[in-house]
Amino acid sequence: MTLRHFLADDDLTAEEQYSVLELAAELKADPMARRPFEDRSIAVVFDKASTRTRVSFEVGITELGGHPMIIDGSSSQMGRGESIADTARVLGRHVAAIVWRTSGQERIEEMAAYAGVPVVNALTDEYHPCQILADLQTIREHKGGTRGLTFTYFGDAANNMGNSYALGMALAGMHVRLAGPEGFLPDPEIIARAERIASSTGGSITVTTDARAAAEGSDVMVTDTWVSMGMSGEGRETVFRPYQINADLMTLADKDAIVMHCLPAYRGKEITAEVLDGPQSVIWDEAENRRHAQKAVLTLLAEASAPAGGPRGAGRVGSR
Questions:
Q1: Is 124 annotated as belonging to a binding site?
Q2: Which residues bind L-ornithine (predicted)?
Q3: 261 counts as catalytic
Q4: Does the annotation place 56 within a ligand binding site?
Q5: Could you report the per-residue pLDDT of 234-246, keeping only the tens digit for each?
Q6: Is residue 262 flagged as an active site residue?
Q7: What does residue 177 show for φ and ψ, rounded to 5 degrees?
Q8: How far is CA 133 from the centre of its chain?
């Protein structure tokens, strides 16, 4: 067995992603069906504020038989400058896995390099892979599958959601459209990775500044807050206003299209109340599915990784 981490969406193969989603559905139907962390602890570390991530991991780990050890990164020794490597070595001697919500991707990659236990990305500035698994589970529930569907994201396509949507939805065989203003489009390296994935899964990647063209015939309409944590909101509302999901934009989508939002949502900004609270919204199912999808990926990592007591620090970081 090889130590496995989940640091970015494409750390899973398309086949593994499918298996995780199958297991997530099983765990939603029977929350106690798997107990891979019976009587073991998982460290859940937060450098950034959280509602859904904390609740979903805390409850989910308990349902997996484990004890969630919630750590506020800012008030731990990490906040006083202890190195990530030293923190990783210590945590890895006590817990069965580490979940971390932090800033730069290089931080969680360093944690994974030294922890000796599986590490899960609960959000970084570059990726939000657990959210994408929850979104895919929600799409499967409401559309019967993912392959061949058109998935369209509106807003800041250069942020972590844009990156993860490009990679994760390509893995699921979807036609991914990313619509945002100039200056807020994905890094070409992300698009190149997503296109390589899409070429093997039957999906495709489109990047555009034309929100109305992007919405045309879409099966899934998605947006995110215009001002993420740590950002200044100055000027962003004006820039992103043409990418608001509203009733007019919805008329261009497929008549059976669903609407998603990773939350927190700001009615009247990135999405109107009429749409968010309307019949095509599946946002609350999406929020619940964080728990089931995260339980599934933790189970996969537990089953795939070396048992406790095996070689520490010998595993790879991701699969890219």
A1: no
A2: 160, 224, 228-229
A3: no
A4: no
A5: 789 999 999 999 9
A6: yes
A7: -115, 130
A8: 6
Q: Is 244 a catalytic residue?
A: no
> Is 137 one of the annotated binding-site residues?
no
Asked if 2 and 315 touch (Cβ cutoff 8 Å), the reply is yes
Cβ neighbors of 82 (< 8 A, separation 6 or more) are: 76
290 is catalytic: yes
Residue 206, marked binder: no
Instruction: Please name the residues in contact with 185: beta carbons below 8 A apart, sequence gap of 6 or more.
Output: 157, 158, 178, 207, 209
User: pLDDT per residue over 302-313, tens digit each?
Assistant: 999 856 444 343
Per-residue pLDDT reduced to its tens digit, 112-159: 999 999 999 999 999 999 999 999 999 999 999 999 999 999 999 999
Q: Of residues 17, 131, 244, 294, which has the active-site annotation?
A: 131
Secondary structure (3-state) at 75: helix
Report the amino acid identity of residue 136: L
Instruction: For the chain, list the domains and their CATH numbers.
Output: 5-128+288-305 (3.40.50.1370), 132-285 (3.40.50.1370)
Active site residue 294: no
